[in-house]
Amino acid sequence: MRLLLIAALPVVAGCGSVPQATLDPVAWPEDSAAVQVALLNRVSWGANRSSFGEIAALGSARWLDRQLAPAPASLPAEAQAAIDGMTISRRPLSEIAGELERQRRETDRQAYQQELGRLGREAQARTLLRAIYAPNQLQEHMTWFWMNHFNVYQFKGPLRALIGDYEERAIRPHALGRFRDLLDATARHPAMLIYLDNARNSAGRINENYARELMELHTLGVDGGYSQRDVQELARVLTGFGVDPQSASFHFYPRRHDPGTKALLGTTIRNGGAGELDQALDLLARHPATARFICRKLAVFFVADEPPPALVERMTQTFGATDGDIAQVLRTLFVSPEFRASLGAKFKDPMHYTISALRLVLDSRPLPDAQPVIGALARMGQPLFARPTPDGYPLTRTDWASAGQLTARFEIARGIAYRVPDRLWQGSLASLSEPTRQALEQAVSPREWNLLLLSSPEFMQR
């Protein structure tokens, strides 16, 4: 009944790489404990005692400065050891791919699929461990954001063997760097080339899949002012860019490339062979529509489902002035009054809900097993690296606030809360409503108190 009481309460509607330029110090006018907790819940994967101790000692401004320009940092010893022991951490992709290719040819299909599954689960577990424990929380947050933005579906072909490398080498090093570098790294990674079929794109057999999504989802946006002719011309530019099957590495095949002159977004691209890719990516990364599209999506992620246009415009100006420096754009966002006013009012998607609960429950204690967490995310409709379509998971409240979704969250909350014998840190939430406080006061045990806290409307927000 107490769980039902909490469930009936209204849910408030939610509205590694150091940046290449020196960031000005963050200005932060108010720095109460409540604001610090709210800031942790928005910028990191969730507040816990350890992270609150850090931000309380540094102050919000200095904490944000460190998050925007992170120094190398290790995870707790057990989590780091688990990551270091993974095949995807110990062996290069070329070696893994070569062994898999031999296995595919010499053994049965089932064994090959089992090995792909094991490598995919390693990548999922590594992502979860970093999200839960990494000190550089903004970098982890942005790595997930960009993995979602440049989405690939791990269950297509051999991608389960590639997904860990895709995150590690294409996304993570550029998560707080320059957008142009990030775009280039994803365009040249075999996971993207296979997922969106560019590995099969050749002169005389044009495949437009990657060209279309590169413009619509990765850069300009659906309203970015390009035409179907631009898609066709970009697809011609992208001919010949594929994957070496022996090493699973990016490779340019000159004989498959269309050498003719192309007209892309009003710019002529002449026969430049492999260099045509750089010309096209320069055009896309520095196009004004790309700046607006990326900045609005960042504002949706960090501020509100319908972000204030004035904030998006200021972010867009920073994007253009800094040649797409992601950390500088985020700094513009974080120092804005719109960002501060929005704290606590963004609805958590399943990943945010689950990781914030685990950060609160575990703090620095080791995660016993990542597989139940992987399963929980799947039950809530957001399995890691498993969005089949290239658009990535949605970032707004309406996609995650259904009755079925909340029921699944209460089941996950029960599974987490009842494993903790003591009360969780109530300070993890900036504020609690009176109905929630009354419900918590009626709890007959610490475990029930924990369940009610994790099921509360306030915990559904960040």
Estimated structural class: mainly alpha
Low-confidence stretches: 1-20
End-to-end C-alpha gap: 26 Å
Instruction: Give the strand order of the largest sheet, numbering strands 1, 2, ... along the chain.
Output: 1-2
Amount of beta strand: under 5%
Tell me the series of helices and strands, N- to C-terminal. Answer: HHHHHHHHHHHHHHEEEEHHHHHHHHHH
The dominant shape is globular
Largest sheet: 2 strands, antiparallel
For the CA atoms, what is the radius of gyration? Answer: 23 Å
Helical element count?
Answer: 24
User: How many β-strands, per DSSP?
Assistant: 4
Mean pLDDT: 93
Q: What percent of the residues sit in helical stretches (DSSP H or I)?
A: 55-70%
Task: Give a structural overview.
By secondary structure, this protein is mainly α. The chain has helices at residues 2-8, 33-43, 49-58, 60-68, 77-84, 87-90, 93-106, 109-133, 137-149, 159-171, 179-187, 190-195, 209-218, 228-237, 275-285, 288-302, 309-321, 326-334, 337-342, 350-362, 371-379, 403-417, 434-441, 446-454; strands at 241-244, 249-252, 262-264, 267-269. The strands form two sheets. A two-stranded antiparallel ribbon has the order 1-2. A hairpin with a 2-residue loop joins β3 and β4 (267-269). α3 (49-58) crosses α4, α11 (179-187) packs across α15 and α13 (209-218) packs across α14. The longest helix has 25 residues, at 109-133. 47% of the residues are buried. The model is unreliable at 1-20 (pLDDT under 50).
